Amino acid sequence: LSGISHKDYQKRGIYKPYTAYPHDTIIVHGGTYNEQVSIEKSHITIKAAAGEEAILDGADALDYGFYIYGYGGQNIFDVSVEGFTMKGQLTAAVLLKRCFDITIDNNKIYGSKTATGKRSAVWFQEWGEGSIVKDNTIRDTGFGIGAIELRGHNNVSVIANDIEGFHYSGVYVGGDATGAVVKGNRIKAPG
Asked: How much is the pTM?
């Protein structure tokens, strides 16, 4: 599967074997999917079908729900992940590397019940710029340094998220990340 791949652990995959092309919108229908989705191609929108609950369940065994990254030295531009429920991933529900102008919008993200290592809901690594994380509900993310963690990504906007039940911080900006806009979020400290 060129551009979008997945590891299917229960033989029930989000995708049929076809190639996603730039500017495609992939609609995922309701159901529980025990898999990891890697997006290695620019200009893709992937979203849950209107009125349906599409759940990516890491079952406290899988590292991530969505992994958006530039492979082989390329950068990824203009990808949107919208309307999913993600739970039980061990590292991050959404992990981003070498990404620009990514939108993570209107998702529900719940932590792993067993993870004791690093765990963030949305984790920006390496470099990137101009992304937005907005209108997400984030609960019980575990031991990650931030429920939303920005490292090395510039000009990222974190807007109107509802964050509760984190271990260290609701939003962490560090690792050479500059120009972050963090506003209008509801961040409730644990305990």
From this structure: 0.88
